[in-house]
Amino acid sequence: MKKIYIILVLVSLLWACNPAKQYIKKGNEFFLLGNYDDAATYFYNALLADPQNLEAKQALKKSANNVLTAKFSQFGKYVVENRDADAVRQYRSNQKYFEKTKSVGVELDWPSMYDEVYLEIKNEYIAKLYSDGLQLMKDNKYDKAEANFSEIAEIDPGYKDATVLRMNSILEPMYQNGMKMLQLENYKEAYKNFDKVYLQDKSYKDVKALREAALGKATVGVGVLPVQNQTHSRNFDTKLYQDIISQMVKGKSPFLKVVERSSLERMLSEQQLGMSGMVDPETAAQAGKIIGLKYVLMSAWSEWDMDQVRPTIDSIEAYEAYVESIPETTPGQMRSITRFKKVKYARHYQKNRVYARVFYQLVSTQTSQIVASEVIAEEKSDEYERFVFKGNVSNLYPELPKGNTLPPAPREWREKFGKTSGTIVSQEELANKLSQTIAIKMADEVRLYVER
């Protein structure tokens, strides 16, 4: 009996671990109820789990053939009702269903008598879509025309010039809008439209030349002057200037041309000009205008602070709980009570911090006016804190109890006892991160103004 029981248990486990059998069982239940669609779904999943399952294949063929027959009945109904669009979609849905079952090794009985009917309806439907699409293009309703040609390409990609017309229905409105923006001297929008056309078809009309012309008109030259150091510290201004240039260029805006110090000096020397020492906005604007820039970016590093708490070890008081047994009033009986004793633990602490204050001015070379300015104050810091206690930390509390309840032991406070020794970010690395943060903010703000 014991062996029979074990065998039955193993059989039941194998059954439970065989999803194909479970799917077949469920599919048979739906099949008996006449729900062939759900039945076919379960038999299909059974074959996904066990592709060689003959029972599932036979069951899927039987149930799915019933489903396909019902689908073609719906197709016939659409044909009779002259609902060509629905008939075409239904037939294509039937094809997908046929291919789906075929992918798991079950080929259904395809009713080929419907093929000729579909071919005739499809051609009529595509002809209507094509004709309507042409009219929509004439009416400048390009989005609706695009929908028509997209549907034609999906039903029959080789039908006439649907693919070309579909492309034209996308490109022509963008091209025309680019021409309109060019006439309105909105060169940035003109470039954006021409660029979209160019990326789709570089040979489309004269889009290449128009794109380059619009970009030339839309490009804004910004000269970036070195950061003025108004502090008694060193080096941060050089690093910040490099980061500002890097972030301005990194934006990869087609409309922004960044001119840094070496290029500025060369361009100014060619004009027999020069700028040295402290430069005021008017002087910067005049020089920038002469060399063809639209804006000049000036910045100054005005404040700097560095804090450092070197590794220190402090001794801090806490309270350790312990259990003490005391006699009860009844002779021979004892009870336990929790008491606290004052102890000390060690706190290891270290911190690095850097702070900088920078302000910038974006000067228009046309008016010599400051068109944008901002003060950016940022800091970066890192600290390390670890507690060390020689006893059992789970019995340690930062304060004595109030009343008869144990005091709370903050989770974060106790977790600090489990930390291992570690290092913190150096002041030099913090300064580099601070420089990058300031440069990103400045570049983003300037870019938003210049490109609007």
Brief synopsis:
By secondary structure, this protein is α/β, with parallel strands linked by helices. The protein folds into 3 domains: about 100 residues, Serine Threonine Protein Phosphatase 5, Tetratricopeptide repeat, CATH 1.25.40; about 80 residues, no CATH class; about 220 residues, no CATH class.
Question: What can you tell me about this protein's structure?
Answer:
The chain has 452 residues and is of the alpha/beta class. It folds into three domains: 12-110, Serine Threonine Protein Phosphatase 5, Tetratricopeptide repeat; 144-218, no CATH class; 228-451, no CATH class. The chain has helices spanning 2-16, 19-32, 36-49, 54-80, 84-102, 115-138, 142-155, 162-183, 187-200, 207-218, 236-250, 261-270, 281-290, 411-415, 427-451; strands at 220-224, 228-229, 256-259, 295-327, 334-364, 370-388, 396-397. Strands 1, 2, 3, 4, 5, 6 and 7 form a seven-stranded mixed β-sheet that branches. A hairpin with a 5-residue loop joins strand 5 (334-364) and strand 6 (370-388). Helix 8 runs antiparallel to helix 9 and helix 9 runs antiparallel to helix 10. The longest helix is centred in the N-terminal third of the chain and has 27 residues, at 54-80. It is flat. The model is unreliable at 6-11 (pLDDT under 50).
How far apart are the termini? Answer: 86 Å
The low-confidence parts are: 6-11
Structural class: alpha/beta
- Overall pLDDT confidence: 86
Q: Give the beta-strand count.
A: 7
Strand count, sense and barrel status of the largest sheet are: 7 strands, mixed
